[in-house]
Amino acid sequence: MSKLPQNPLITMGLAVVALAVFIFGWILLDAFLAPYLDQPGSRVSFQEIAQASVMERQVSYLGTEQCGDCHQTILGEWLESEHCTVVCESCHGSGGLHVEESTSMIVNTSADLCITCHEACCSRPDDFPQVVSAEHCGGFSCIHCHNPMCPDVGGAPPSIHTVYKGVDCRICHGTQGFHPAPADHAQRPIESCTHCHEQGGDTQ
Fold this sequence. Notes:
By secondary structure, the chain is mainly α. Among the domains are: about 10-55; about 155-204, no CATH class. The protein is built from ten helices and no strands. The chain has helices spanning about 10-35, 45-55, 65-70, 70-80, 90, 95-100, 110-120, 135, 170-175, 190-195. Helix 3 crosses helix 4. The radius of gyration is 34 Å and the shape is elongated.
C-alpha cells in the first residue's frame, strides 16, 4: 500500500491540484450540462410541469370547516361522534360543485359504503367496530338503525307498533316473516324486543 509523500509541499500541491480539478469540473458541468436539464423530458422540467398541472386544477374538495358553515347542526353531531375522524367528503364525495353550482350531493345510503371500513376483517384492531354484514343487517341499509353522522348514538330503532302483552313479534319479524329481523336477532328471547326497541304507542 503506497504512502502519502512525506514532503508537505508535495502534499499541498496534490491538494491544490485536486481542488482545481473539482472546480474546473464544476464549471464544465454548469456550462455544458445545466442548459440541457431544462429541456423537455428532463427531471427538472417534468417536476415543474407536474407542479403547474396540479396548480391549474380546479379545487373540488373543500374540507370539513366549509361544510360546517352551512351544516352547523350536523357538524355538531359529527364532532361529538365516533366518526369525528372521518371528514365529510370521505363519505359524501367532493363538495366543490355543491357549493359553486348548488348541485345536490349524491349520498350513498347503501351498506356498501359503510362496510368499506366496518366489514369484519382480522387485520383491523379488535376494538374497532366490525360486523359481518351478511348476518348483521338482515338486508337493511345501515341507516335503518344508525345515524351516519353520529352512529354511536340512538341505539335500536323504535318500534312503530302498539305492542300488546303476549303478542309474538316473530310472527312478522321472524325468519319467515314479511319483514324479518336481522339474522343476529334469531337467538334472542322474545322479551328482548321491547327491552331494546322503544314503543311507538302504549304497551299493555
